[in-house]
Structure formats: structure tokens, C-alpha cells
Amino acid sequence: MSDNEGSNELSLETRGTKKEKILVAILILVPIIVFSATPLYNFSGPTLFGLTFFYWFQTFWLFVSAIFFLAAAWMLNRMEGETA
Amino acid sequence: MNNYIVLSVFLSLFVLFVGLGFWSSRFRKGDMSDLGEWALAGRRLGFYLAWFLVGADLYTAYTFIAIPELVYEAGAVYFYAVPYVGMTFGIALITMPRLWKISKGKNYVTAVDMVQDKFNSRTLALLIALTGIVAELPYIALQIYGMQAVLTVMIGQLVTADVATITEVALIISFIILAAFTYTSGLRGATITALMKDAIIFTTIIVVIVVVTVEVGGFGSALSDMGTKATGTGTLSNLYVSAFISLSVMSALALYLYPHAINGVLSTNSPKKLRYSTALLPLYGVGLALLALFGVLIYASPSALALAGKYGAVTAVPSLIYAELPDWFVGFAFLGIFIGGLVPASIMAISQANLLTRNVIKPFRPNMDPKTETRLAKYFSIVFKFIALGFIFLISANYSLQLQLVGGVIILQTLPSIFLAMYTKKLHKWSLGIGWAFGIILGITMLLYRNFIQLHLSTVTTTFYLFISQANSPFYFLYIGVYALLLNLLIAVVGSLIEEMIAGRKAHRGEQSQLKA
């Protein structure tokens, strides 16, 4: 994500393999893409506690994105090692 | 309902709140005449406090009052706040630890410090600083609207005459108290009181959702009582899909450009903890989603509808609480909403004051000593609060949220200079400055044109622009921030390429003349 050649500040490079970086990117991007793809969830059914799918699906995805982001944060922190 | 019980619970908790605010200056004591101590709590906030502090930026009157107000009044499109908070923390996870590290390495206290240093341009830094300060004002004003809404219901139920005057006096008194403890406790005060505020609010949300949904038998009946709203009731009307997406994506990009959000980020003690607390912040959004649904739930409560009809849509949440819960709990919940506006207002004013002294005044008086700098910042934090308060008494907005959305159009114009500049060295100062200017001009022009000329309105009521008035076109309604940011980005990128070319040619010529010599 943040590997930028020749940055002069504190070590800004994230170490880690290409695979790990791609995984982090996926973990962060999936919730963002799902949330911005409104036509995917703009339906009334199935309902939950009387709420239409539109409302509860988005609320539910907040939990899912917290899990995705947490995984991404954990990986980024591990890749960064002791430097920070 | 005993309104005196409501008032006395409210007042006693308010006294507790104020005590906590003053006491917090002793929390992890630091030298309060140092700006880093006062405005960034000494950069020592760990995982929990950072979570609460940044959460406090999110859990504001925006969440308690403005979003539910518009869901209640206009329908589904204003649920955009939920995908917005879902996305914004993903963006923050990418950008903010990087900003933290850059800032720590070079001892920056604001994002503008970075802009100044990277581009070595006083003008660009000044523009970005002023943009932050200005964009923050309507956000503070929104907080005051929220506080006013609570007071209106509470005082309106207590007395029969002079409700507006008593409310204004109460607001002024609470702002004086707030100013005093912001002055003494700085960001520490805001963080510690944020804990109290969030504890009250979380309890309130859960209690209201459980009690009211059980009483009315689920959301189903509320949704059907809601009838047909222009932007959709159970689902989003097709005409508003583009509006929904553009509002949520742009708000997600905007949040971490606000000085108060960056201030919160820079006050944490490590980028690793910052990552974890950011990753968990969407959970705060669940509360926001439930509060937005209060705007639906209110339709199941005839007495709440009557109250909101009497005191205005802005009181949708306080009305629902008042109508459905026992008096002592109403006092408790009202205080939560009230300080839910006060605490963020304090955080925002601190970040404005910080920017003003460091990035606007200091460049002109480089010899100012740190003590004077801090004292000045403290004074300005008071000034900004009262400017925002004056704003409220002078300008009336139809919907409290629209002010914040206007602020959003403005703050988005700092995106190229702050976010993009962290990742690339290819942007140049002139293009960034010109892009900023055109973005601001286009945004403001479109806002004025749409509201006052095209729709003949007397206040800012919409931040959507409609280019192609053909239904099902993806550009039916779009948030004006989109147009302004795109123009800004286009100029910044194309202009930087041109600047690069000119610089390259100059360098080339320089080499040639050196060779000749």
C-alpha cells in the first residue's frame, strides 16, 4: 500500500511479500467496494425485524468491515515489524 | 411525565460532566502551556482513548440529530451515512498511519505543517489552513443545532412562553462553561468527557431500540406508517441512487481531511494502535445506523410525531425519546445528546485554533515563543466557539445537515494537497493551488446557483446538482462535492505535468548553458 521508493521520512516502507500486500489491499477494498455498490443491496426483502434488506444489510456490513479492517491492520502491523 | 425530573437529572449529570472536564487537565499531567500537550494531549493517547476520541469526532450531533432528522423528513437517501462510515475507516487505515509517521519524523502538529514543508510554499499552506478553519465552522454550527434541539424539547415541555429565549440563554451559558474547560484541559478534557458521552449514548441507543421496537412490534409497521418519501422509504428510490453513492463516497473521503480528525490521529501514541483503533471504528457506525433508524421508528409513535411536528423535524430523536421513555431516562438521554454536541464542538475548536496559530499566524511572526503560541491557541479556541454560536443565531438553515455538507464541499478541495501529497512527489504547488481555487469556486457557484437561482430557495436546502434531468441516468442527482473535487484533481494533475515539463526544460537549458560556459 505504502511502499514509495525513496521516501525520506521515518521508514514509510511496508515490508512484506507481494502476496501479503495484495491480501491487505483486498481486505481494505472489499468493504469499500461493497458499500459503494448500492444497487447490490437496494432491495426490500428479505426483511429482518421488519426492516428491509436495504437497511439491515448495510448495518450488518459494518460488522463485516470491522473484521476485514482488523485483519488488514493486523497484517500491516506484522509486516512493519519492530520499526514503528 | 414529570418535566422537573427530566431537568434535574439533566442538570446533575451536566455538573458531573463539567467537573470531569476540569479534572481531566490532571490526567497524565503535562505542561499545559505547551501546544503539543494542550492540543494533542501530549501524543500519548493509547488504543482505548484514541478509539473514543476519534469516535467522538464521528458520534456528534451529525449522528444524533442531523441524519435522523433527514431520514425522518426525506427518507432513505440520508442513510448514506452508514456506507460513509463503513468506507471512511478503510480510507483512514491506508492514509492515517502514514500521516502519523511522516508527522512524527518531522515533528508536525497539523497536516498543514506537512503541506508547508513538502511544497515549500507559504501561500499553499495558508490556503489549506484557512480551508480547514472555514470548513470546520459549519460542522461546529451543526453541533449547536443539535444541542438546541434537545433544549427546545426539554424547555418547551417545561414552560409555555419564551422557549426560544430561554434556549438561547441556556446555550450561551453552556458555551461559556465549555470554553472555560477547553481552555484549561485542552484535548484531554475532550477525550475524558467523550468517554462519559459515549457511555450515555450507547445505553440510550440500545434502550430506545429495544423498548420502542418491542412496543410497536418491529420496524415493519413503522416503515408502512412512514408512507412514501421522495427519496425512498423501505428502499432507495432509483432517482437517488447516484446521490446516495456520491454523498457516501465523498463524505468518506472528506472526514479525515478535517483538522479535528487529523488532530485526533496525531494525538495517538503509536501507528500500530492507531491501526487497530481505526479498524474497529466501523462498530461505532452501528450506533449511527440505529440512530438513523430512529428517523423511521418515530413513525410508529404518534405522540413522538406530534412533538416533532410541534418543535420541528430537527427534534425527531429527542421527541422519540421523550415520548417513549420514563422521565429520569429522558433526562439522562438528553444530556447524552447535549454533550454529544458539546464535546465535538470543543475538539473542533481546538483543531481550528491549532491551525490558526501554527499555520496562519506563526509564519508571519516566526519569533513567537511556544508559550505565547499556546496561549493564543487557547484564546482562539474560545473565539471560534462563539463565532459558530453567532452563526446559529444569525443564519437559519432549513436542515441542519446541509451546513455540514457545504463544509464537505469545501474541505474536499484539500484532498490533493494532503492525501495525494503523502504518496507522490509529482504534484506541484502552483497546480495544487489553482486546482484548489477552481474547486472552491465551482463548488460554491454550483451550491448558490442550484439553491437560489434554479430552485428559488431562501436557504441552502440541497447539495445535489442535477445535470441531465433524465431518470435512470447515472448523473441524475450528484453531490456537488464530486464536481468540485474532480475539477480540482484534473487541474492538479494536468497542471503538475505541465509544471514538470517547464521545470525539465529549464533544467535542460541550464545544463546546456553550463556546458557552453
Structural write-up:
The complex is a heterodimer of chains A (84) and B (517). Chain A has 84 residues and is an all-alpha fold. Chain A has one domain. Helix content of chain A is 56%, strand content 0%. Chain A is built from two helices and no strands. Chain A has helices at residues 18-36, 53-80. In chain A, helix 1 (18-36) packs antiparallel against helix 2. The longest helix of chain A is centred in the C-terminal third of the chain and has 28 residues, at 53-80. The model of chain A is unreliable at 1-9 (pLDDT under 50). Chain B is mainly α and 517 residues long. Chain B has a single domain (3-395), classed as Sodium/glucose cotransporter (Up-down Bundle). In chain B, 77% of the residues lie in helices and 1% in strands. Chain B contains 21 helices and two strands. Chain B has a two-stranded antiparallel ribbon with strand order 1-2. In chain B, helix 16 (327-361) packs across helix 17. The chains are: A mainly alpha (84), B mainly alpha (517).
